[in-house]
Amino acid sequence: MDVQNSQAEPIVAGQPRAADAVRVQILATEHWSLLASRGLIWNEIFNRANMFLTTLSAAVVALALVSQATDYGDDFTLFALLVLPLVLLLGIWTLIRLSVARNEDVWMVVGMNRLRHAYIDIAPDLEPYFVTSCYDDMASVMKSYSPMAPSRLVRILASTPVLVGTINSALVGVIVALVVEAFDHSPLVHVTAGAFGAAVAGVVFVAIIPFREMDRLERGLETNFPPPATAPAAD
Question: Of 9, 78, 111, 124, whose CB count within 10 A is highest?
Fold first, then answer.
């Protein structure tokens, strides 16, 4: 008699249950596939952020050279208003892609949490050795995604999309200040306008977009393996 067939157990659907060794092999293959996908996602995140920061650095150097040649005159303002909006546009594209990539990365973590749940189903005695969660509710996923983050707010504010969003907000402030300066040379007016523009952009790029993306991710997450309910304390 075949050893694997002797270990097979019927399930509700009437199909034979694969041997545990086969199940572990299949699960491990999927686990490595998710790890490879996460590696590609993080590589893209780093490359996108690096490309944006490199472009920003080149723009700042160019502005510094032009400012010396024009003594911060009208030609400098015109050059800055040609260059900075292009950098801002690249920053917005980068922010959008980073937000999407981060959601994709979280989905990979959801998949790995489910795989760990399957491992524990096969070998329950191994559960104490896992340092990441085996449940797929959002709290458990975030525990696996960033186990040392003290809160959701800190986790979001420390993310790469928020960093790029902060830089974009500063760019908006500079552009607004330059536009206002072209019509009103009062330092107080264009500095105030620039600060207001940066603050409004900061609310959009740093607060609204990241939190909306996180809420959208939570709404789209279907929990298949919720954590067990906490037992009430005995009197």
Answer: 111
